[in-house]
Amino acid sequence: MTNSPLEEPLVSVRDLVTRFDIRSGVFRRVSERVHAVENVSLDIVKGETLGLVGESGCGKSTLGRSILQLDKPTSGSVKFEGVETLGLSYEQMRPFRKQMQMIFQDPFGSLNPRMPVAQAIAEPMVINGVAKGKKLRQRVLELLERVELGREHLSRYPHAFSGGQRQRICIARALGLNPKLIIADESVAALDVTIQAQVINLMMDLQAEFGISFLFISHDMAVVERIAHRVAVMYIGEIVEIGDRRSIFENPQHSYTKKLLGSVPIADPRKRPENRQLMIDEIPTVIRPVGSEPILLPMRKVSENHFVREEK
């Protein structure tokens, strides 16, 4: 069960599996595998933000990269506007890559330090033949102004900007191809709280203006509560709970979801719930011997738009 909205999904993921081999010994044989993503199914509809939450190492980033095939999935299905994209060649994927963009966690690492801002924003449009010459320069300036930067920034290099400004540049670059889906991987995690708010508001404004769908990956529950329409909770490679924002935050069902919410800092300790659950257990490893398959329990329906996986 995937908690599919009534609208036709823009992206439909079914039983997606991504594993990585671990080789050891003199002959470098595969002895173990990292089960990063295990039988994940979810939908994203046009104009919505699906928040994907979970602690570091649970497989959130790998799931996002697998949807874009930056990491090659082991099995499963990813459909974009009804078209199966897994198994397509590099050339066959090019039209879809225009429609699906990614904002990475580290804006400085995802920008070429030898490229001025104008060139960094223009590069995807040049590669995909979207614009050139005067039209390209005008488009770059429009994008820069849309993310609240100016003409004076065009010739500057990434090192001359703050973290928030660099993330705005990355957002402008992602918008250059007019995508329908943006996967934002911890895109505000490294920013100050005030800058976080500015970037989140910018993303919400862009969504309202252009109808962009977001897969918003984060471990910050407060940020997700602000931006997401629906929330999927990921634990050791599996989706353990998925539902609309209000259901997840007001009526969590899975013990892991309750622990995530219990870990959110509270300004006034006197208002802290007495029965809140904290993360004190050791997280199980996602590394398993070759041939060992995880046991996946079924999802049960809590309400119309809220599903939770049975616990082991």
What labels would you give this structure?
312 residues, 28% strand, alpha/beta, eight-stranded mixed beta sheet, 30% helix, single chain, five-stranded antiparallel beta sheet, globular
Folded structure, characterized:
The chain is of the alpha/beta class and 312 residues long. Helix content is 30%, strand content 28%. It contains 9 helices and 13 strands. The strands form 2 sheets. Strands 6-7-8-3-9-10-13-12 form an 8-stranded mixed β-sheet, with helices on both faces. A hairpin with a 2-residue loop joins strand 12 and strand 13. It is globular and about 60 Å long.
Ranges where pLDDT stays below 50 over 5 or more residues in a row are none
Overall 3D form? globular
| Assembly form of the protein | single chain
Order of strands in the sheet with most strands: 6-7-8-3-9-10-13-12
Largest sheet composition: 8 strands, mixed
Strand content: 25-35%
Given the structure, what is the number of helices?
9
Structural class by sheet pairing and helices = alpha/beta
Secondary structure: helix percent = 25-40%
Q: Order of helices and strands, N to C?
A: EEEHEEHEHHHEHEHEEHHEEE
Report Rg: 20 Å
Q: Mean pLDDT, nearest integer?
A: 89
Number of β-strand runs: 13
What separation lies between the terminal Cα atoms?
18 Å
Write the layout of secondary structure elements.
Blueprint: E1 9-24, E2 29-45, E3 49-53, H1 60-67, E4 75-80, E5 83-84, H2 90-99, E6 100-103, H3 117-127, H4 133-146, H5 163-175, E7 181-185, H6 193-210, E8 213-218, H7 221-227, E9 230-235, E10 238-244, H8 245-250, H9 255-262, E11 287-289, E12 299-303, E13 306-309
Parallel strand pairs: 3-8, 3-9, 6-7, 7-8
Antiparallel strand pairs: 1-2, 1-4, 2-11, 4-5, 9-10, 10-13, 12-13
